[in-house]
Specification:
The structure is a homotetramer of 213-residue chains. With 213 residues, chain A is mostly helical. Chain A has a domain of 141 residues. Helices cover 73% and strands 0% of the residues of chain A. The first copy, chain A, is built from 10 helices and no strands. In chain A, α5 runs antiparallel to α8. The first copy, chain A, is elongated and about 75 Å long. Chain A binds a DNA duplex (21 and 21 nucleotides) through α3.
Chain lengths: 213, 213, 213, 213
Amino acid sequence: MTDSKRRGRPPGDASADTAQRILDTARRLFAERGYAETTIKLVAARAGLTSAALYHYHPSKLDLYVAVHAECRQRFLAVLDAAQATALTFTDKVLAILDASERLQADDPIVGWFTASARVDVARRPELQAALRRGSDWWTQLCRTVVDTGVSTGELRADDHAVVMAFLSALLLGLGETAALDERLHARALAGSRLVLDAVLRGRLGRAAELVP
Amino acid sequence: MTDSKRRGRPPGDASADTAQRILDTARRLFAERGYAETTIKLVAARAGLTSAALYHYHPSKLDLYVAVHAECRQRFLAVLDAAQATALTFTDKVLAILDASERLQADDPIVGWFTASARVDVARRPELQAALRRGSDWWTQLCRTVVDTGVSTGELRADDHAVVMAFLSALLLGLGETAALDERLHARALAGSRLVLDAVLRGRLGRAAELVP
Amino acid sequence: MTDSKRRGRPPGDASADTAQRILDTARRLFAERGYAETTIKLVAARAGLTSAALYHYHPSKLDLYVAVHAECRQRFLAVLDAAQATALTFTDKVLAILDASERLQADDPIVGWFTASARVDVARRPELQAALRRGSDWWTQLCRTVVDTGVSTGELRADDHAVVMAFLSALLLGLGETAALDERLHARALAGSRLVLDAVLRGRLGRAAELVP
Amino acid sequence: MTDSKRRGRPPGDASADTAQRILDTARRLFAERGYAETTIKLVAARAGLTSAALYHYHPSKLDLYVAVHAECRQRFLAVLDAAQATALTFTDKVLAILDASERLQADDPIVGWFTASARVDVARRPELQAALRRGSDWWTQLCRTVVDTGVSTGELRADDHAVVMAFLSALLLGLGETAALDERLHARALAGSRLVLDAVLRGRLGRAAELVP
DNA sequence: CATGAATGAGGGTTCATTCAT
DNA sequence: GATGAATGAACCCTCATTCAT
């Protein structure tokens, strides 16, 4: 009536925080390999489970991805938003964001990598786009808040709003890319960005070399 | 296999035509969906062939990707390098590159998209990395050339070489990203970049709004 | 496991309640979807348990099926056999069976559906066949009893025994099918059957239309 | 670049009529095991292919089923409709259908089995229902045609139309069931049916035993 | 009794690739 | 050059079942 091969849960096994281990593993793998190339089986194996067990926590690959995405977005947003909120002017807000993202990247680089990686995956796969429609523009929102501040403090002309937002987006995107490419490059690009922003926004031009550790 | 047809292609040669159609189709699909999600069958179908027939032109998916990549790199490099070569100073070279990339993007957006898309795919897949090792750093090379010029003209301090290169890389990468995301965003980010560079490099600050069409 | 609770079940006993709920749910699902398509998890969920909990009541899916099957057979047999026993002649016994099956169907249609559904499932799966070998021919037995009576009362020739049994089986099977397909169709088919049997067995031919409600 | 294990079509293999072999195998397996229990892999193996190769002929399991279903329906309908068309009265048409179905069953029993088996599978699975909506009522249509004839020839009262159709359906369904259960039972049930119909429709009652081979 | 977590064994399907024609 | 037919390797997901609590 029952097969000779053992089916069912094996005896002697109980490990907590499996859920978090799954998320951590998935985040790293999604970041490194992207959505398509990351198999559920591999995530499960790296987290110490069978793929079937993983389905106990997330009902589908897409759901797993969404969960990871949400977690990353939240962590990113919490840090950057807090940083931006501590500053009062446009200039300070931008620089605070740079600082915060640098700290986050140093603290847990995978969050940043995943975020960069996710951008292309989401753009490529309509299913992900659909599943993530809500809250996927936090990035733009953040930029808008900062630029709005700039306009209201008089640092920026209202006319320049769109262009500044676009430039800021491009710069932050580019910094994210360098973070994914090479740690040293990222550090230098950050230094350069601070320098340039300082020059443009405060009118003083420093020496780049002094800024890089 | 495609090399012999490239120059002096006889008019009405169906084979050369097919070869180019394959490359065009593949470029677009690789750009839109990435490497893993693009199937040989789909490329073939869109190009009007069977997948088996495609193997007459490219011996494997990876080879096809490499071919597309090489073609794009060459086209990109030709344009940007020519543009940079016409200018004499760092400042002018950078602005020339911006102009040229904007023209290229307007002319054939897919080349730009593919380039952005390829970055992540290559980073993700070791096989691609291995196959593309040669010539994959043209990007860095170009930046280096330009920054070198800046140092030799005295526009930049030698100490700042690395930081400026990193900043330039980040900015150009970010602009590439915006190009892939949204045409208008890209246009504005370009305008903003010109403005900022002008301000930093020439010390004059214009109004952003005037630059956007 | 369920046997002990069956008679004299103490009022308010949750366990016996659960057991019956499981059987009811399973009967309906097995009837509607068949054996393979009915998952233990779904039965459990509909009965308000976990699938693991269901295993406290039935040690395997097959056992659950067997339990449902036995229950249905018993209920069916009890009704039909009682009905048949009240009549003395072949003709009356057959008509009594038709009446009784109609009442049963009206009372709890799922029992009939399950019985029809079970026939194919058992025929399809050797495991079920093996597990149900005992008592799975109650159907034939019932027919035989009735036909035997016909022979002994002189209504049927002994030579015709086999053919009449086969015809009766076919007709009852067919009626069961119509019951599963459509209620109205079943009602009409029953009416037609009564008419035809009356004509053949008693030599009087009525109007069909008068028999259908 | 290519794996060590051989991928692709193996050398030295070319067999025609694969398509028909697939249909034959699938018909038998679907008939014997039903939809859910029949795996694509098994069909393929029995037909001498890999499951992947089967997808070259039918894009999904459901499509394969639909193909088999259509083929069976067509064969069934062709035979029964031709038989019915040769007769002019209701009585003769019904008996002709019985004869034809008996011949078909003797000729290729699997068609009949599949048809009986398909009924429950289609009823159970909404997907099949949806896919087969067109032409799934050929059965009813055939009955209607025959009964219509009976009314127009005066053999049946118009009032009895519905009841006769229902009875005929039930009887034919039941005969189909016996065919699936046991060959001898089917033969006897057919004989009994002829007898009963003759008695009811022509008013003469024969001896059943003479009709069975 | 009941549950949550876990497993092995598939099941349908896709895909890059290859061979014969 | 081009095509249809074929393959092995995966991939996502489901399911009956079991164990610890």
